[in-house]
Amino acid sequence: MGINNPCALLDRLLQQPVENEWLEFKANNSNPTEIAEYISALANGAMLADRDRAFYVLGIEDGTKARVGTSVKLKQLMKGGENFENWLSHSIEPRLTMELVDFTCDGLDFGIICIEPSYDRPVRFGGVEFIRVGQNKRRLAEFPDRERALWLATGRRKFEHATALANQTAEDAFTLLDFDQYYELSGETRPGNNDEIIRRFIGLGFLADNMEGGFDITNLGAILFAKNIGKFPSIASKAIRIVRYTGNDKQKSDREQQGSRGYAVGFSGMVKYTMDHIGHEETYVSGVRKLTPQYPEIAIREILANALIHQDFTITGAAPTLEIYASRIEVTNPGSSLIDTDRLLDERRSRNEKLASSMRALGLCEERGGGLDKTMIEVEQRGLPAPEFISSENSMKVVLFGPRSFSAMTKQDKQRACFFHCVLKWMKRDFMTNASLRERFSLPPEEYQAVSGVISEAIKAGRIVSATESQGGRGAKYVPYWAAPKKTTQ
């Protein structure tokens, strides 16, 4: 957080028309208990107002906003023989990031307490949560509607809102971030005035006005538009790593690429690099030799985008990786899946919603959830084995498999293909049948029994169920196990 220019900050705070839920002016107040109550109220008010900081200011006359100075020295205040700042740190719950500053402007003494809301739960002092109502401090329990709203707000602020680099000048921002790439991707006309560009980035949450004449680059802005991720300590370890191995294990690699740019800036390059280094199949079209990638580009693009977007940024020392093997591609991101892997196609949930919506707005991935659906459809049309989704405690892995004939597929390959084919049919308000699954495997009608065996195994494994109470027969229809029809009672 850090206050770098308190006088400039004071000037900006005084531009507020009146005190509000995140701002309190006092000429003098040396009562630690009363100040602590205000800190609770201001922190909670800032959360409701979606502000990243709240301020308690000494030296300003309440009501008139006149600069009168203060006789209180925040750093010298004591509470019960204990330093006020130390006392605050263990008296406020949950523990907040606060900065107490005593300073002089134009010959007058002032004090500011800068409070960063926790966004963990409502802030309390002495077991009581306080809130600002107009310009008054009240107990939160007296206002149940605000209490409910506050609990909802506690889950709103995440990694994306936090500061990657604080107190940067506009020139610093242009040096560190690729603004041009934003306008190229978004299709917006680039303003000729840099101030307009800065305002646009503030509005999008990529920058924040620090109210001291400078700007904070948010984690969201840095992870998307950094010219060099290494310049931002909070995301320096999140650059994607792409490795190609010569075989089907990690024994020997022949290519490795470490990303250095923000995800939006470098995404197209990541996809192109991957497509350039995967295997290709030789085909002939009208006598003309053609090389076709073993994996659909949409699958690479969407699975890579999902890994970047849905990673858990709080897991340190881990970054998204894309590993190319002779017969498969594995994409891994930190953080377990928020959705059961059997429901990835039909349920929607995002760990980093701002990052996801920004990537979608820039055309770097499909609309919410649509990309994975299109990936699975393309995989089916190409006759490839269905991807495997593996969620563990601290990571999520997606495995794309190269071309395999039906006879070369393992039992697990066939079961995954059967299940996800059934899911895709259900999503179209249709049913899987023996005929549709044969088409998915590119098999002729005489392979009815082979496909029937796959269906029987899927039923035994509890992966699919009959769409009707009647079982079997050539016209049997099937749905995923979680879409089982309710049984009728006699």
Labels describing this entry:
four-stranded mixed β-sheet; Heat Shock Protein 90; Methyltransferase, Cobalt-precorrin-4 Transmethylase, Domain 2; 490 residues; single chain; 15 helices; alpha+beta; six-stranded mixed β-sheet
Question: What structural class results from the helix and strand content?
Answer: alpha+beta
**Spans of 5+ residues with little confidence (pLDDT < 50)?**
none
> With helices defined by DSSP (H or I, 4 residues minimum), what is the helix count?
15
Helix content range:
25-40%
How many discrete domains?
A: 4
Distance between the termini: 67 Å
Oligomer: single chain
User: What is the correct CATH architecture of the largest domain?
Assistant: 2-Layer Sandwich
Structure commentary:
By secondary structure, the chain is an alpha+beta fold. The protein has four domains: 6-157, Methyltransferase, Cobalt-precorrin-4 Transmethylase, Domain 2 (2-Layer Sandwich), CATH 3.30.950; 161-229, no CATH class; 239-401, Heat Shock Protein 90 (2-Layer Sandwich), CATH 3.30.565.60; 413-483, Arc Repressor Mutant, subunit A, CATH 1.10.10. The protein is 33% helix and 22% strand. It has helices at residues 6-13, 32-48, 84-91, 144-153, 170-176, 179-186, 194-203, 219-225, 263-276, 297-309, 353-361, 370-381, 411-427, 434-440, 448-460; strands spanning 23-26, 54-58, 78-79, 82-83, 92-93, 97-105, 108-116, 124-125, 128-133, 136-139, 163-168, 207-209, 215-218, 241-245, 253-258, 280-285, 288-293, 321-324, 328-334, 388-391, 395-401, 464-466, 478-480. It has a six-stranded mixed β-sheet, with helices on one face. Strands 1-2-7-6 form a four-stranded mixed β-sheet, sandwiched between helices. Strands 5-8-9-10 form a four-stranded antiparallel β-sheet. A hairpin with a 3-residue loop joins strand 18 and strand 19 (328-334). Helix 12 (370-381) crosses helix 13 and helix 14 (434-440) crosses helix 15. The longest helix is centred in the N-terminal third of the chain and has 17 residues, at 32-48. The N and C termini lie far apart (67 Å).
